Structures are given as C-alpha cells and as structure tokens.
Amino acid sequence: MLSESAQPKDRPTMRDVAALAGVGIKTVSRVVNGVSTVAPELVERVRSAADKLGYRPNLTAANLRRSGGRTNTIGLLLEDIGNPFSSAVFRAVEDYARDRSVLVLAASLDENPQRERELTRKLIDRRVDGLIIMPAAQDYRYVLSEQQAGMSFVFVDRLPTPLLADAIVSDNRGGARTAVEHLLRTRRRRVAYFGDDMAIPTAAERFAGFTDALAAAGLVPDDRMVRHGLRTAEQARRAANDLLAGDPPEAIFTSQNLVTVGVVEALHERDLQHDVAIVGFDDIPFAAVLQPGITVMAQDPAAVGRKAVSRLFDRMNGDQSPPAVHTVLTRLIVRGSGELRLPE
Q1: Model pTM?
Q2: Do the Cβ atoms of 264 and 234 come closer than 8 Å?
Q3: Are strands 152-156 and 130-133 parallel, antiparallel or unpaired?
Q4: Where are the CATH 3.40.50.2300 domain residues in the chain?
Q5: Which of 89, 33, 21 is nearest to 63 (CA)?
C-alpha cells in the first residue's frame, strides 16, 4: 500500500500552467498547439511553467477535437512479438507508420482467442484509427459492428473467417510443397514432418503442401514420422530426439521457425546433421553459419507488414473496395542441409 506521501498526484493541467505563467488558458492552448502568432515572451513563460510542472498535453483529446477524430495511432496484434516472424512484421509496420507520424500500439496474442477479443476491445476503446490482427480466433463476425462504426481492419498471416477485411498472407501451401519437392530431388523418400497445431490455419496449409509433394511423387505420409502440435523449440527438440532414437528418417520438413530450431538442435546432439536432410519453413537465426547451413523456404515478413499497413492506411483514408486476399510469395534459400545426397 502506498504511503500518504507516495500517493500518485493528479497530472498538471492547462489551467495549472496558465496560473503559474500568469496567462490565460487560451494562451497556453495556442502555445501547446504551435500557433505562431503568440508573442515570444509569452511562449517562453508558458514553456517554462510547463517544464516546471511536468505538464504534458493530452494528445488523444486534442486529436479527437480535430476534423475526423483521428488519434494518429493504430493497433497491431501479433501471435508473439518475440517470434522472429512477428517481430519483422512489427518493425515493417512501425517504420511505415512512423514516416507518417502515426504511433503503433502492439501486443502478443499467444494463440488465445479470448485475449484477442479483449485486446481488440481495449485498443478500440483507446480510439486507435485502425487495427492489424494476426488471427487467433475462428469467427470474425465480432468485428462487424466495429467496421460499421468506421473502424478499419487488416489481417495478416492467416485468413479471417468469414473474410470481412483485407488479408495479407504468405504462400504457405505452395511454399511447403516446393520445400518438400526440393528434399525429394535428393532421392530421399522417408520424409518426416514436424509442425505446429493443426488448428492453426498456416500449420494446416503447410501440412497440406507437404502431402501434396509426397502425392505427386507417388508417396503417402508415414504417420510414425509425423509430429503435430509443436509450439516451442524445446517441444520440437524432444519430439525429434524421440524419432531419431529409433529408425531415423531420411529427410525432415519443419513447418515453423521455432520447430526448425528444435529439430536442428536434436540433429546436432545425435551427430546426424550430415545424414538427415532438412528444409524448414521460414528462416531462423544463424541458419547460414551452421554446418551444414540450414536450407529454408523463407517468408518475407517485412513485405507482409508493409503491405498490411499500406492497405490499412488506404482503408482509413476511405478506400471502399471489396476485401481481398493478397499473397506474398516465399523463396527457397539453399544452404546445404536440404541438398544432402544419399550414399550411392
């Protein structure tokens, strides 16, 4: 409990500044808003008083009084800002918005639909001008009333159901198929799969790409070599060690960056990194300096972020065109692990 002397004090107001500076409230308001006709001597008195009191203007209230009620803030809700993909999306959105004097308020969802709804509501209550969301929920009809009230939305990485706003996604299924086809060119046929929870749309799409590539080669997935529901590098490491302890697969496709990290750790622990080929979906730190380097199907999270924030600004500025899906292509980065040849 705070002591009486430590109780939080009310923030100083414009009236407090006016009293200390010996001027009227209108003069303080004109100084705060940068009106150029205020006499320099009065400007100095107001600024000096504001500094002594620690006064900060209420920018939200000021913006709401302006035409259109803009607050020059947007919300960004991502799976996990600590994840390299999410953090790259965040940085691209932040850079774009900063160039336009707009502040980004970001938070992590942790694949929790209830958390998503709560954070969405809190950001809307704070009068953000628009929202970019990496979906965690299954049903997005809850945003309809907000859209009708003028709120702009853009979704990233996954499609909302139903499609009520623009969505910016990577080519998950096509990229996964290309990655597995690349592994199959090494003549390896026993290919394992390590991936995220199949309830996550991107995980389901990447597993579909995995099975597409096998089917085109006349193969079917071996259920003994398929591992779903892996959310962390440690979970993936344990699952990989369990599989590698028996009859190791000839190749592995990992469908998420943290999963790739865990599987690569297990391969090195068992000294199998030169025997079992691997291609991961999405790039990972230090992939190029390992031996062998880790071949990946890389997304372009910066492009996803730029496209998302660009579409959001278009919507905030009045674009009324029907919502659309915008796909950002993936690319194969060859580094060695996916090109290991079977012994003759």
Answers
A1: 0.76
A2: no
A3: parallel
A4: 68-169+301-328, 172-300
A5: 33
Lowest mean pLDDT segment, chosen from 5-9, 71-75, 254-258, 270-274: 5-9
Q: What is the pLDDT of residue 69?
A: 67
Q: What Rg do the C-alpha atoms of the chain give, in angstroms?
A: 26
Reference 208, options 281, 284, 298; nearest CA is: 281
State residue 102's pLDDT score: 95
Which residues pair with residue 332 across a beta bridge?
297
3-state DSSP of the chain: CCCHHHCCCCCCCHHHHHHHHCCCHHHHHHHHCCCCCCCHHHHHHHHHHHHHHCCCCCHHHHHHHCHHHCCCEEEEEECCCCCHHHHHHHHHHHHHHHCCCCEEEEEECCCCHHHHHHHHHHHHHCCCCEEEECCCCCCCHHHHHHHHCCCEEEEECCCCCCCCCEEEEECHHHHHHHHHHHHHCCCCCCEEEECCCCCCHHHHHHHHHHHHHHHHCCCCCCHHHEECCCCCHHHHHHHHHHHHCCCCCCEEEECCHHHHHHHHHHHHHCCCCCCCEEEEECCCCCCCCCCCECEEEECCHHHHHHHHHHHHHHHHCCCCCCCCEEEECCEEECCECCCCCCCC
**Residue whose C-alpha is closest to residue 97's, from 67, 129, 134, 119:** 129
Inter-residue contact 29 to 57 (CB < 8 Å): no
Superfamily of domain 4-57: lambda repressor-like DNA-binding domains (1.10.260.40)
CATH of 172-300, one of 3.40.50.10490, 3.30.360.10, 3.40.50.2300, 3.40.50.150: 3.40.50.2300
Task: Give domain 68-169+301-328's CATH architecture.
Answer: 3-Layer(aba) Sandwich (3.40)
Alpha-carbon gap, residue 338 to 173, rounded angstroms: 18
Q: What is the pLDDT of residues 258-291, one digit of tens each?
A: 999 999 999 999 999 999 999 999 999 899 999 9
Residue intervals of the chain classified under CATH 1.10.260.40 are 4-57
